[in-house]
Every structure is written in C-alpha cells, then in structure tokens.
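We emphasize that the prediction below concerns an isolated chain of 614 residues; any contacts that depend on oligomerization or on bound cofactors are therefore not represented. The input was used exactly as deposited, without trimming of termini.
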Amino acid sequence: MNTKTTIRGRRCNLSFAIFFAVAATTAVYAQKPERVRRVTPDGDLQQALDTTSPGDIVTLAPGTYRGLITISKGGQRRAPIVLRAEEPGTVTLTNATPPEFKLEFTNVKGDLYRAPVPWQIRWVMVEGHRNLMDYVTLAGLEAFRALGNDSRRMEHGPPEGFAWENGFLYVRLLGGKDPNQAGVEVHRETSVFQKKTYTLWGGRSFKQGDGFILDIRAPCVVIEGLKLHMAPDIAVQVNAANVIIRDCYFDGCIRGIESLGSANLTVEYCEYSGYPTYQWVRWGQLHGVNGKMGLWNTIYASNLCNTFIHHFGPSVKVRHSVVYEAFDGMWPRNMGTLDPQKTSEYAYNLFMSAGDECIEFDTRKAINLRVHHNFIMDATVPLALSPVQGGGLTVDHNIVYVSPERGLKHCTLLKFDCPWRRDYGAPSRGITFVHNTLVNSYHTLSWTKHTFVDCVFENNVMMVNRSSRWEQEGYEPTRYNIFTGPNVNPSHMPPMLTGADPGFKQAPDFAASALPVLPLQEAGLAEATPAFDCPYVDFRLRAESPAVDAGAPDTSDRYYHKANGSAPDLGAIELGDDWEFPHPGPRWAVGEKRPWRPALPPSLHPRWVGLAEM
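Result of the prediction step, given as a token string:
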C-alpha cells in the first residue's frame, strides 16, 4: 500500500513528506556556529564587541585592558554574547592610569607627600588592594577630619588618606610611609565626579559614566572570569535584561554592579572587596574615636561608602559569592512585582565585614526576594529590615554571626527601621523571618522600632551577649523561637523560650570579645590578636538542646524546611543534618591566583563558609 499525503494541495509520497519535515525542522532549530574572537591587550576590544552576532564569544588574552567598554550589541537567550577571560583570573579591566603615567611624590612636611596630577582625583589605591579615604580638601587631610554623614559636623577620620587640590594629589599613609614605595594607583582623567550627562536609548536613561569599566546596554550577555579594578564609580553598569556575571573579582569602586530595573540579572561565583572600610569602622570603635560609633559617620559620607550590588528589577539571582569590607554589602531595592515566577534570590553567599550593613532591605514597593543559606558575619548591623513597605521578603536558613574576635562593640543583629526618620510612614509588611541562627558575641538582637503588618518571626535561634526588649508593633515573635545568652532577661522576649544555652555543639566564647585593644600596627590595619584558646564554634544542635522539635508544627512547606523529628527544630540546621556551603567566590581564585582576603576569625572553621580547601 502506497501511503500518500498532501503538501500545499499536492499529493506526494510519505517519504518525501518526512524528508521535508526534517529539513524544515533542521532549518528552524539549527544554530549558526559560534564565532570565537580572540583579543589581546594591544587589540581593539571595543571594535570586537561592536561587530558581534548572537552566539559569538570574545576571549581576552591575559593582560590588562584599559578604559570604558560598552556592550551595545546583544545576543539571544540561547545564543548570548560572551565576554570571557581566556585564562580566568589573568585578565584585568581597569580605569587606572597606564604604566607610562608616573606619579612622582615629593615630601611636603612630616608624612604629607604630593604629586602633580592635572585632573581631579577621587579614588586612590595603594599596595594593590587598599582604598584610601578621600578627605576632599588639603586642610581636611592635614587634620584627618571630614564631614560626618548624620552628625553634619567635622569629625575625625582614618589616620591615612588623600586629597586633590589645585593640580596636586596629596597623600598621607600609615606609619608615614613614602607613597613612592607603596604602589599608588589613581584613575585616568574622568568627569564622573563632575556633572553627569544622560542619553536616552531604548526608552531608558543611561548614565554616560566614564567612571564605569563595563556598560552593558544590550540583552543576553555573559561576563566570565575577569578582574574589574579601579572603576572608580561603577565597575559594571547593567541596563539590559538577561545578563550573567560569573567568576569575576571587583575592587576599587563605589559600586561593583548597578542594575536599575533590568530583569533576570544573575551574579554567581563573584567576589567584592571594599577594603579597608570595615577595618576603619572597627578601629574607630576600639580606639574611642568620635564616641561609640567610631569612624562610622565619617566613612558613611566618604568614597568608602561602597556597595557590591545595587539593583532594581525582577528575578535577580546572587549565588556563591563573597562580599567583604563594604559599607553596605547589598542594596536590593524595589522589584516591582510579587509574581512568584519573578522572585529574586540570594543563596549560599558569604557576606562579611560590613561597615554598616551586610544587606540593607530599604524598599517602598514589592521586594519579592528570598534570602537563604547565606553566612552573614561581622557588621554594624548584619541585616537591616529598614523598612520593607511593599512586602515579599523571606529570610530563612541563614547563619548570622558577630564573632568575638572581629565583631564590633556597638552592633546589633537586626535593624527594624531607619532611626532618623521623623515619622514611620507606611508599615513594613510581608516579611517572613524563619529558621535562622543568630549570634551576637558583643551586643543585642535588635535596634529601633517600627510598625509591621502580616509579618512572621518564627523557628529562630538567637544567642546574644546583651539582652534587649522587643519593641516592634504588630510583629510579635511567637513562642516558637529561643532567646539565649549569659545575660538574657526573660521579660524582654515573651513568649519565647529563654535560657543561657541554645544547645549548640560548641557555643562561641563571649569572653574573647573582652580582649584588650592593641595599638594600630604600622604595617596594616588589622589588630594583632593576642593568643587566646578559642575553640571552633559549631552551630549544630546537640540532641538535648531545647531547640530540638520546638518549632511551629505544620510549617515545613511554608518555611522551606524538612523536619527530622516530631516537629521542626529551631534555627538553620535540623538535628542530624549538616551545614552544606559550597565554595564561594571565583572558582579560579586558588593558589597564586587567590586575591587578597581578610582572615576569618579564629573561632570560625573555614568549612562553615566553604573555604576549608583554601
């Protein structure tokens, strides 16, 4: 039997029909072979990016590439434009001056040096990784005094810094070091700190920032394996959807990444250093400079008020990254929707050493963000719920740790509102704060008060050095929490479980927080830590812990939790489970390629933050 079919009204053999269908399918789904373009440091990277087609890969040979790069031709979801280091970790994109520009410092007096620079300087780095504070004026640098952000008065600043005035860059370094021996770096001539101009492209406003390194203006772009150094404004400006940034290292910038409304931004296996922002805040507190808040006010108003990511827009994913020595580590802002298909996520990140806040959730509209399985450590305020007026925030299964060795004397684990607001405005709403383990070796649980609607605080473990009263109207924690520490007052936290011991396998030794303060070391900022027998903390629960089976029943699905017993345990780790934390930061950052990082506190085994193999 000869089976026939009809194509466009004509009879034909079935075999021909099958051939036609296969050919048509192949034509539709076959993708153009990708082109790989190799660029060297002396080549034209901008020209290569301007002539790409979807699916093209631009590889960068090892070396340094200077100046603003704009990506204005994008790809497709299945055929993105890829900008990739040929050997990850060996390619640097920078706005620093080229080697032929020589800084020649002469001594003015004492530890004050100057070098002629004809353009305005607003960012200086020394010794490869240390950012200097801009004192703005020579008089400010000579006195080490600058305007405080909140106090609005002149306050003491760090005992090193710079100022540019009348065609000269003035520098004072720790210990009176000669800047000619300190590897001083400055940015190229840029108008970024003068009046910014704007153009319109595709219905959006774009900053024309020659203080950027990468300006991504087209969708479906992947950036891989790069070092982004000395912007000095924003290292990567994202103004398009479906951008992926992975395995990159950022330093020398006010913002690592800024995305003002772009959807589907993914940042993974990245690393950001704002060193030494946190160290100066801590040093100021330890030495009693400007009162109990130390240098916080001064740093807040300076170029060291730095942040890794500032983003708006839906479906932002930040995973497996390391952020340290920033002022505010992360600035999630209004995402514009509560659509569960467009939820943003921070997961398996290490956020540590923040001069102000590791994550600042300041939003008036929907934030639509889940923050889970992160390790968050050492800040003035690790988590700032301040305020979340549009709802949609879930914070679950995180460990928040103010360490006894490296924490701040005046810090709190949670901030519930901006304390300087004259009125409270709309309440915070839609916050779910569950299954977190929070430890403050120095101070209290919460600071400031606010009003809340439809918020949940449940199944958490808290251990603090100082007791404080819960004062949040409409946000009463249920009895399914435990509030512990050597000095807790049960009347501060009804109806929670209370006690001295949370039942950790190894609680931190709060006595380490009373170690004597040592003088600032000339060679660097870190306080030398006296010998102290400090066992590793272990946040897992013992079988006899009062937190075992003490969670709210029938909440596992809502709280992303699997109970092993009759009810969920309190905290981030269920009895019988372990803390799984994959290696964060660039996957190439091992051995000699590993960038500078602050040391972990002696009480914290590196396995808790995925760095045990390092």
